[in-house]
Structure formats: C-alpha cells, structure tokens
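Fold description:
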Amino acid sequence: MASPPFESWLRPGPSGLYCAPGDFFIDPAGPAPRAVITHGHSDHARAGHAAVLATAETLAIMRLRLGELGQAQALAYGEPLTVKDVTVTLVPAGHILGSAQIVIDYRGQRAVISGDYKRRADPTCDPFELVPCDLFVTEATFGLPVYRHEPDWAEVQKLLASLADFPERTHQIGVYGLGKCQRLIKLIRQAGYDRPIWLHGALRSMTDYYVSRGIDLGDVPNAADAPGKLAGEIVLSPPSALGDRWSRRFADPLSGFASGWMRIRGRVRQRGVELPLIISDHCDWPELIRTVTGTGAREVWVTHGREEALVHELSKRQIVARALRLVGREDDAE
C-alpha cells in the first residue's frame, strides 16, 4: 500500500501544524484542545491549551511564564507515546533547556518537526539529536549564506579582552532571558571568568530555574543590589534595557549584544551596539544545510525565517521543499 501524502495527515494552517490522526497541534499560535510544545519560548509556548504535552523542563518553564496550565503531561526524551493512531517521541533539539524535536510515526512514515534548534555544543541543555526521517520540518531563522556564526569561545574572548581594555566601564550585554542568558554565563565561566556576573531583575526567574536543574552558573547577583557603579564588571540585561534609564546606574556603560543578528552591521548600528557578540541559539547557513541533508528526508517544510533561500537551495539538491509561512514566529528575539 502506498504511503499517504504528508499533507493528508500533517496539515499547516492559521493555527500552526495539525496532526490529524493524533488530533493535536504542534506549537499552535493560539489556545488549542491538545498541543505538543517544542520549547518554552513565547512564540512557541502559549497559554490557554486544554491539554499540553512537552518535556518536564518545558512544562516548568511554561508555568513560570504563563501560570497554571491545563492538563499537562511530561514526556521524557526517547520515550515513545501512542497518541490515537500515531506514535510521538521527543528528542533533544539543542536549542534551550527542555527543547525537543517532535518525532511522529504514522503508517510507515516518519515526520520530524524540529522546532528551533542548534548544532553547537551548549553546556546548559541536551545536544541536538539527528533523526533520520521522511519529512523534516525545519526553521530557517538564519537561512541565508551570509549567516555564518563565529566560534562561541572566540566571541567570549572578545568580551573578556574588552573588559581588560576598558576596566573603567561597565560591560552591559543584552541577552534574551530564556536560554541565551544562561548559556552566555556558562560560556564565560568556561573561559575562566569567576567574578560575579550581574543580572537585570527580568533575567532572575529563568536563571534561578536553570540553577535548580543542576546547571552551575556561579555567582549571579542582582545588579540592583550592587554597592557601586560596577566599573569593569559584566552586567546582563534584556536587549530593551541597553541605553535606557536603567543603564544610568553604571560606570560609562559599554553596550554589547549576544545574537546571531550581530553578523549584520546594519543591525549593530541600528541598536547602537559597541560590542557585537555573534552567539546564536539557532543554526547558521552551513549547519542548516548539513542538518537537513543529514536527515535523509525526501521532503522538507520550512516553517519560518528566510524560507525562500533555503527552499531554493534544497531544490537545487533535488529535495522537495516548500515554505509554510506560519504566522506568529518571532526572529528578533533570538
């Protein structure tokens, strides 16, 4: 018997991807009766679902951010679960703590919905696991050939060198609060920096949760409790706090921003960033191509980002590819 076309059972729509034989949505854009969530970032994990399936870490992050959930079920990595007529398995995506790819097996076909993912080593989450499949649903946040991320250690050395060059200035680095903040702290620690790393209050709850999961981040006090202007110290804050009134408490603050977008000079100038750090929680262009081709998928769907360029590149490689243009996915929060 011929396998049914993917669109007959995995359907993109205004609310996101819907698995018909399992009767659930994946990262739906609004409240859904049943949702499977890839990770805790707000453009993937939303409030109001009647039932939610995710890793235990993602469920905990959702509770911290959204409050009480509906009926919640935690599923460990690698543990298959029968959901009506399909088998669902979660495998690590390497994006942030608890992030997962959704593996769906149905009538001899395997679809992998990757969510957001990265291939670089990250001491704050489980590494990405490449899963052979027939259909691979991928993001393309940095889906243009210009995006080639620098080695993480080299970007951290830029920060530490700047500290040595400008000991009279506070180094205020903009980071996304979930994932990027904790990963950057750990990378700085791995480089041998053992002084306090000061935090904006908005970064506290997620950082404390990471620590509660056994991830040692060292001394991370609140910047609001600092006794002085923190000259020569590292302060992490949301990007929105760079250059605003909150920054005036520091000693001639030198603004940095840790993001894959710092590859683009126009974005650096637009944000007024003095110290761009190209550290991303998404794949760059070569990593995207390596991942998609490595799955062996005969068909690829691109959910968000620079969809057209990736679709064009895959088509040149005789891989059937299409852009889904799902709404509600944010790139700038990277």
